[in-house]
Amino acid sequence: MEMIGVSASASKAGKTTLISLMLEDSCAKTAVIKTSINNELDQYKVINDPKIINQAGTDTARVVEHGADKVILLESPAAELPSAYQLARNLLDDDIDRLFIEGNTIINFLNPDLLFYLENKDEPEKESAKMVKNRANIKINTNTLLSAGKLNGLPFIIQPEKMTCYQAHLLADLLKMSVPQIGKIVKEQDVKIVKCQLGLF
């Protein structure tokens, strides 16, 4: 199962928008786990009730509308997030190909195949964002994403100096771009491709 992390510098930075766009026209069977930290809760909540998930106007309903096959909402104190996440994973079907994880704190317990970071420079940076932004593979400007409304041609920054061939192919698929397009961006940003699979980079 491929794991895609989507984190952000602030609330309302476009995490759900990015996931929704990546879900569109996907051939993979997909799941989304959306996390919400609430340290006032005594016990975490793992929510997969369709009546709640599909409630009009919610982020969970948006990703369902864009093609997610399974959506789970986690509400949890930060300390209990790993336990809540494990329970959510156990609720996923075995044939899920691609799992999107939305949130910041949860990323500290995981190792996604690709981690996206949305940066909203108009809002103060959340404390939880400081821990994940340096781990991110791909950084995208929130205003650029929201104004573009599409992925193909969307500017982004590859943060690490190296990227595996697998990650480059996955990135192309997620952003609705061709492998040569990604290859051009990789070269422009002076990123080295390692563990090359087919000699395309």
Automatic annotation (TrEMBL):
<dbReference type="InterPro" id="IPR027417">
    <property type="entry name" value="P-loop_NTPase"/>
</dbReference>
<protein>
    <submittedName>
        <fullName>Molybdopterin-guanine dinucleotide biosynthesis protein</fullName>
    </submittedName>
</protein>
